[in-house]
Amino acid sequence: MSKQKKFLLTEKDIPEQWYNIQADMPNPMLPPLHPGTKQPLGPDDLAPLFPMELIKQEVSTERWIDIPDEVRDAYKMWRCTPLFRATNLEKMLDTPAKIYYKYEGLSPSGSHKPNTSIPQVYYNMKEGVTKLTTETGAGQWGSALAFATQYFGLKCEVFMVKISYNQKPYRKLLMNLWGADVYASPTDITEAGRGILKLNPDTPGSLGIAISEAVERAVMDEHTKYSLGSVLNHVLMHQTVIGLEAIKQLEMAGDFPDIVVAPFGGGSNFAGTAFPFLRYNLQEGKKVRCIAAEPASCPKLTKGQFRYDFGDSVGMTPLLPMFTLGHNFVPAPIHAGGLRYHGAGAIVSQLLKDKLIEAQAIQQLECFDAGVKFARAEGIVPAPEATHGLAVVFREALKAKEEGTSKTILFNLCGHGHFDMTAYQDYFAGKLHDHHLTDEQLNYGLKELDKSIPIT
Amino acid sequence: MSKQKKFLLTEKDIPEQWYNIQADMPNPMLPPLHPGTKQPLGPDDLAPLFPMELIKQEVSTERWIDIPDEVRDAYKMWRCTPLFRATNLEKMLDTPAKIYYKYEGLSPSGSHKPNTSIPQVYYNMKEGVTKLTTETGAGQWGSALAFATQYFGLKCEVFMVKISYNQKPYRKLLMNLWGADVYASPTDITEAGRGILKLNPDTPGSLGIAISEAVERAVMDEHTKYSLGSVLNHVLMHQTVIGLEAIKQLEMAGDFPDIVVAPFGGGSNFAGTAFPFLRYNLQEGKKVRCIAAEPASCPKLTKGQFRYDFGDSVGMTPLLPMFTLGHNFVPAPIHAGGLRYHGAGAIVSQLLKDKLIEAQAIQQLECFDAGVKFARAEGIVPAPEATHGLAVVFREALKAKEEGTSKTILFNLCGHGHFDMTAYQDYFAGKLHDHHLTDEQLNYGLKELDKSIPIT
Prior knowledge:
Two copies of one chain form a homodimer. By secondary structure, the first copy, chain A, is an alpha/beta fold. Chain A has a domain at 6-13 and 68-110 and 234-433: Rossmann fold (3-Layer(aba) Sandwich), CATH 3.40.50. Chain A has helices at 43-46, 52-59, 69-75, 87-93, 114-126, 140-152, 162-167, 169-177, 191-199, 207-219, 233-238, 241-252, 268-284, 300-303, 346-353, 364-378, 384-403, 421-428, 439-446; strands at residues 6-7, 17-19, 64-66, 83-85, 98-103, 131-136, 155-161, 181-185, 224-226, 259-263, 289-295, 305-310, 319-324, 358-362, 408-413. In chain A, the strands form four sheets. Chain A has a seven-stranded mixed beta sheet, with helices on both faces. The first copy, chain A, has a four-stranded parallel beta sheet with strand order 8-7-6-9, sandwiched between helices. A two-stranded antiparallel sheet of chain A has the order 2-3. The longest helix of chain A has 20 residues, at 384-403. The A-B interface holds A 1-2, 4-6, 8, 10-11, 69, 72-73, 76-78, 88, 106-108, 110, 147, 150-151, 169-170, 173-174, 176-179, 372, 375-376, 378-381, 416, 418-419, 421-422, 424-425, 428 and B 1-2, 4-6, 8, 10-11, 69, 72-73, 76-78, 88, 106-108, 110, 147, 150-151, 169-170, 173-174, 176-179, 372, 375-376, 378-381, 416, 418-419, 421-422, 424-425, 428.
């Protein structure tokens, strides 16, 4: 028998606390601003959208936040998730690098997203909320929220970006199976949607537009609130169960990573994987390289500006300090729908500005090439979003080979691609291509940014 | 925190031997007969189709057969699989029964099938075979073989039953991803296929027809052999890793089942789950009820005859002693494509004849109702095949409630339904219905059986 492949934890090892990196950041993130007054937000400003417990978590600087028993109990359905040594892939790439991947695709909806949908719905339920609205790209987040609302007995309304709604019919069916109402966004049931459709009836939609619609529906009804699957601090924090488990599992393997890689949409997967390792850099002076992998067609980290911007397209949300392509940026309809977001979460943006993390932008074809090779070597078909991280792993593993150094790489395989098989079909049929953004395209959203808002 | 939900084994616990029930059967199975001479088959008769090591396993009466290291090494990609206590489902059904499920959907192709595709391809590779042909219904078996041939570097050709080819495009894509050529059966590239198409150009196809085509292609070339995903003794035996692991896991839970349930197509899932428990009945006088769950539209166990019959539609295979609906029986195009087979494996048939196991036939709507409830309670979307077993679990759990007795039920959830979401869509849209077979339909295939072949 060859090397050990799987490192398993039992449900007793499910973390009892989330890690809040706000306690350890050398420069704290800038405060979100009220979109009208442009003054820092207070908790009350967020109350129409979120339950108070999540608002508290959003601004907390406590290092550790307790995970409620009911949430840990729900986590038991799929956590702890396995850590794999990618022995077959290492052999295929003929690399001296040791490659580990944490696999989050075993959750009910098939990605890391239920790590936060479960606590979000739980806290909403405890505060008497009966319905949640949200947006979704490829459907990973929408299906995770549909599952969680079903689990705790709440209603759910999902605005799914139109291009993904059409590309990924199976994920819509999954949301329906769990009782959610799903709309192709932009819709004509919101003012925001009607406005966009009037300007551009053929728009493929975007996460920013879908957020506008979901937020509008939430503020209309006092027992309805809004739920976001990434970007915000509390969402990123809920995902830290991934990295916290991975630390234990790498200990079992007698290893510690030189490089941690995760795909990047709004930041939740990246943060959940990397922040618990970043803590070692911040507290103990370790030098783990944490690399966010973003699509070249939506390169906010590598080509965006660090400015205050809206989270949605219409401009209904608070202004957040983030690396952004501008809230009007509509990315190309790539298959990695979950990464088609114009901005990065505020914490991650601050860390990038402070050069505490890295970012790489990858073209679609390089991603799918890595995804196919991974599926052949390791037997798991990765979601298109996940292939972005894989492409960076391939780059780093081949670099290690060229340099003749043995690096230890940890990668978070955030979800399976079972509902994305048409993407692979298109890839094999030669229908996919890379997207090279012109300066004009890049500036389209950026020129709209309100330069009057100070940022340092 | 509530009850323990998951019982995990490490890869060190992957069984080192398969369990061969032929060592313990009170009445051995009758021998397969040569289709021409109607005399018992010798190993040489099977040599054009199978490698010698599998032929040896087919007739072996050794109780334990060693699993090669290379096979155990490949098993590590997904084994050991978890055993779950269905705590949420128990609560939903308000039953005193304890329900456990072994989950085989975590394998590369999403079902229990790689448990045998991996060793089958391994033994073929060792004997110099370079290509395998096979049939598949819903695609669970075809994708499992595609994965295994990819893993060991062989070519693969899959004849996929036409109705499933059209219903399940994503599973076809999965086979393509792993390098297999996939045809909608019946095709015009085989004599068998052309003959069927001439008689009935609009046939939805059947597993029996697809087997004829795959066998025909295999015997044409000396480096090509044929691989079967169920029915045969060696296939059933490879699946016993399921039950062997489950015994250890139930020990961890401090439990032992009163009832073991698995869906039934040709018998491999049922055998793999039940035989290791049946051993306790045969050797130690325990009384575990082992229940095979078959579709009411293809009820060979509950309404078939125990006779010698062909494994395929055209009559190219050896004659096997089995419960059968006749090799010409074409079942209704239900979504559980993997269960649309006219006959039961010879060992399972002998055990049923000897009343050592039970069978229940279930209608499609009852199955999907159970599948949806399970997906809502436990967070896993079951394959349509798997919902047949679930329906029996629901029946037994509710009976336990009526009787006020606490039964321990073990169920094998043989695969996820991620590639079967259109089945759920059809179910929710009210497009599915039950299939009540007329006597004429039941007798259509049976009347073709050669009554001259003696059977006791």
